[in-house]
Amino acid sequence: MFTGLIETTGTLLAITPTAGATRITIASPTLTARLNTGDSIAVNGVCLTALSIEPNAFPPRFSADLAAETIARTTLIHLRPDSVVNLELPTPAGSPLGGHVVQGHVDGTATLLSLTAITPDQTETDWRLRIQLPETLTRYVVPQGSITIEGISLTVASIQGGIVEVAIIPHTYAATSLHTLTPGSLLNIEVDVLSKYAERQQSSPAGFTLTEQYLIANGY
Questions:
Q1: What's the CA gap between 217 and 220, in Å, rounded?
Q2: What contacts 146, CB < 8 A, 6 or more positions away?
Q3: Could you list the mean pLDDT of each consecutive 10-residue stretch along the chain, which spans 220 residues?
Q4: Which residues lie across from 62 on neighbouring strands?
Q5: Is 85 exposed, middle or buried (0-12, 13-18, 19+ CB in 10 A)?
Q6: What backbone phi and psi angles, to 5 degrees, belong to 76?
Q7: In sequence order, which residues have a C-beta less than 8 Å from that of residue 28 and are 6 or more positions away?
Q8: pTM for the model
């Protein structure tokens, strides 16, 4: 489980087709030494398995394989060498949840409409991010609710139709990949898993109860 608080960014070194899967290689001087083969790591909000960890390479790097489902559902296959990616390691049990519950299971992609500085004449400024969300995901998004964009836990400021707006503080803009994006960019989206469980409860036969055991069994 993740929380959507990005620990650091990395740089995509390569995307390499192989016989069994497509492999991506990412440079991360900060996190590579903390990884072991088989560890989970979120890359732009996508939960992947760390492989071929090379902490002594220059730069330190790790790889991960993209399954066909990952390629179809996320933006990772569209990345190019030198792309900046958001990285987060799983949250240890018992740690404070600084963002919200993020599974790393991308629900779909959205299109960046704009990322606008609120006070462009200031050195540090808040930003307003607008995205076009797929119609299939809008029912899971509410004002002041949580949404994960490129792995970042954010709060919905407004939603009108399929257009979602969120406020970005200067730190988030500078410390994540957001400052590298341009209008038209595709973004990984994970809606709040609790909204999906609530929908499931409403549509399930009478007698179904959302319990702690159910949430654990289903990956919460």
A1: 7
A2: 4, 99, 100, 153, 154, 155, 156, 192
A3: 94 90 95 96 98 96 95 95 97 78 94 95 92 95 95 96 96 96 97 82 62 65
A4: 26
A5: buried
A6: -60, -35
A7: 8, 10, 11, 59, 60, 61, 62, 87
A8: 0.89
Concatenated DSSP letters of 91-127: PPTT---SS--B-S---EEEEEEEEEESSTTSSS--E
The token pair at 174 is 């500078």
Instruction: Give dist(CA 66, CA 68) in Å, integer.
Output: 7
Give dist(CA 133, CA 154) in Å, integer: 15
Which amino acid, 114? S
Count of all residues that appear for the chain in the document: 220
Which has the closest alpha carbon to 4: 102, 107, 77? 102
